[in-house]
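We treat protein structure as text, and this decision shapes the records that our systems exchange. Because each token names a local backbone shape, the row as a whole describes the fold. An entry from our holdings is shown next, in its original layout:
>
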Amino acid sequence: MARISRDNFHGGYRVTGLEHDIAEARRNAQFEQDMSRISGQVVNAPGDALAGAARTTGGIAAGGIGVGVRMVRDRRFRYIMQAVLHFPMAFFVVFFFAATRKITSIEYSAMAHEEAQAASAQALGHGALIGLIVAVVWTAVYIVLRTRPKLRRLNQY
């Protein structure tokens, strides 16, 4: 806090600590300005989030509709999309099945909390690995035995 003291030698008054008060006032003003800006952003956040979600959903829906229309009109594209989408479908099905089988077989009651978390993480890793291997093999078999013959028949027309 600034202090005013009488200067008997030179006559008049002397002000000390003013620089500290000015710096403090600047910091307080910057804080108030930042808080005002943040509160304005917080007020607008739900609307911004809703608008962003609508744009994303609309874009995904439009892309899905476009892919669906093309799949109905073009058999070649439909067969190719079926082959492409077999991989994620097979991965997720096998991953969840393998991970839940492994996790349910773990005896948690005899383990410490950290050991149980490590065992669960290891089970998820094994499930992901098994899912990846099975999905690659399943997709390759599907393409060779199902998609390629269909595409060859289309080329004969």
Q: What stands out?
A: The chain has a mean pLDDT of 83.
